[in-house]
Amino acid sequence: MCFLYCNGLMDHIYVCQYGASCTSWYKTPTHFSGTLDAFVKITRNEGVRSLWSGLPPTLVMAVPATVIYFTCYDQLRDLLRYGMGFQGNYIPLVAGGLARLGAVSVISPLELVRTKMQSQKLTYSELRVCIRSSVAQDGWLSLWRGWGPTVLRDVPFSALYWFNYELVKAQLCDQYHVSQATFSISFTAGAISGAVAAIMTLPFDVVKTRRQIQLGEMETLGVPVKNPTSTWHIMRGIWAESGYRGLFAGFLPRVIKVAPACAVMISTYEFGKIFFQKMNLDREQQAC
């Protein structure tokens, strides 16, 4: 009835209607024996460009979410460290978690809007009516449906990610005797911390995926959305069905997509900060 498509930055729910092709760009998948086999077959059958399918709607959501996330992290970290005088390795842990909590809370209604447009193919006028009816029936909090499992996955991930990133970056800087992290140091630290955080939060990602698919199937059947099952209840169900392997399903693909994504993201961000700091310093010196 529906399936969840993950492209490394965000998750997309697509609804299959009347057993037909789910989207204009998605084709019936071949059987894949592994991640590498999937890359080869997709590239061979659909072309290299298909590996970037679904990029435009992803950027619409990912860009504002990332802007809010990184800006909040830097401001919170500096506030805790310099404004309030706190010291210790826990500062990135707290700042990372709070920054992700804020970003998820702001973007969650937009995520719901995007999901409805993808699953029901609504125009903007129809979408406005749909949102109004949803708010009238279930209240304003209905716009944040799915917020809970998203927070349980993303907030611990961000807290662990920034904690490990700052730790590994400091150790690499000491090892190579540099005062400021280079592009390669940021890239390495980002990849390591992203992989560790992805592994440790994988069970929450599995729960979020199951809940998203359940909500998509209920909307497809026209069934009213009932109160969601708690995260711990879903985890117990997965453990009873498949054991600990079920909670860590998709381990290799998640690490393969998250580790390089985190490495590219943080190294580019750090390079951009250094570039603009230097440019601002040069402007100040020229003005003097």
TrEMBL record:
Q: Which InterPro entries match?
A: MCP (IPR002067), MCP_dom_sf (IPR023395), MCP_transmembrane (IPR018108), Mtm1-like (IPR045315)
- Keyword tags: 2Fe-2S, Heme biosynthesis, Iron, Iron-sulfur, Membrane, Metal-binding, Mitochondrion, Mitochondrion inner membrane, Repeat, Transmembrane, Transmembrane helix, Transport
**Keyword Metal-binding tagged:** yes
Entry keyword annotation includes DNA damage: no
Q: Name one GO molecular function term.
A: 2 iron, 2 sulfur cluster binding
Cited Pfam families: Mito_carr (PF00153)
GO BP annotation list: heme biosynthetic process; mitochondrial transmembrane transport
Q: Where are the Solcar repeats?
A: 1-79, 87-171, 181-275
Localization per Swiss-Prot or TrEMBL: Mitochondrion inner membrane
- Which residue ranges traverse the bilayer? 51-70, 90-113
Q: How does it sit in the membrane?
A: Multi-pass membrane protein
The chemistry this enzyme catalyses reads:
glutathione(in) = glutathione(out)
Q: What are the GO cellular component annotations?
A: mitochondrial inner membrane
> What PANTHER family does its record include?
FI19922P1-RELATED (PTHR45760), MITOCHONDRIAL GLUTATHIONE TRANSPORTER SLC25A39-RELATED (PTHR45760:SF1)
**Into which family does the record put it?**
Belongs to the mitochondrial carrier (TC 2.A.29) family.
- What is this protein's record name? Mitochondrial glutathione transporter SLC25A39
Q: Species name for this entry?
A: Salmo trutta (Brown trout)
